[in-house]
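Posting this for the archive.
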Amino acid sequence: MPVYKIFLVLILAVSSANAQDYPEKFASIQDWSIEGEKQYYSPDNLYDYINGASDFYLSYGFQDLWVIDYKNKDGQILTLELYRHQNKLKAFGIYAEERPQGVKLQAIGAQGFVESGSVFFIADDYYVKVYNGRPEVPQEQFIAFSKAVANKICSSCTLPSAFNLFPIEGMVDQSEHYMPENFMGIAGFDGVCTVNYKDANDELRLFLYKADDAKCRTILTKYFSRLKYKKKLKEKSYVFDDPYLGMVKLNYKEGMIFGMLDAKNVDSHFKLYQIFTLLQE
């Protein structure tokens, strides 16, 4: 083999190894040591680990996964799964989709919960799962382990800031979601934040999208075309009777689309929508 090809192979091998180096910050967890081989998965082979769910994870900007066993001095094992996503918002999106409605939340990372003896939490761009082993580790200990992992990622973890732009009053608890693809059935309308609201008479969703202005205009042009609405796009509020979605209220501002879906009567939510609009100023 020519020398230059050997050199290229060596460079690629080193690059691949570096891409798969276990993050040093997780090498030491107080009272726990790594046990056995570390497993690494990329977008190319995630299917080998979570089978049919891999496409779902990939739609949320999955970057890589480490699966590692940790053992304590008593020989008990915890399995750590570190799913790293493209950004904090996409990591939250997959976490929120798997979070059971009404589950008791835990102060782990930005937010977490315990379900069936396992811990699930969000911390920056990581969605983390911690599974108990046999013999079982007491809940207090594996929650402490989970918090230690979260602190390795971010010392003061927070939820994505986009959700601070939604009104608090009337918000349905744990209803924040990130929609990765084709929101409202519009191709390219990807990465929309939504929150559910409820009052005595109605239920609805508010949504928020921020992107390059050219992309916002392209999305709304597609939507107007679908509705056969031929007026020029302006920075204003629109109300449409969508044959597929019902009443839709939305606003366009430079680099932003936000609005309301699912309401029986959009006019009855004037105050809520006014607050939502002011939060976008």
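Residues 223 and 261 are 14 Å apart (CA to CA). The domain at 161-279 is CATH 3.30.200.100 (Phosphorylase Kinase; domain 1).
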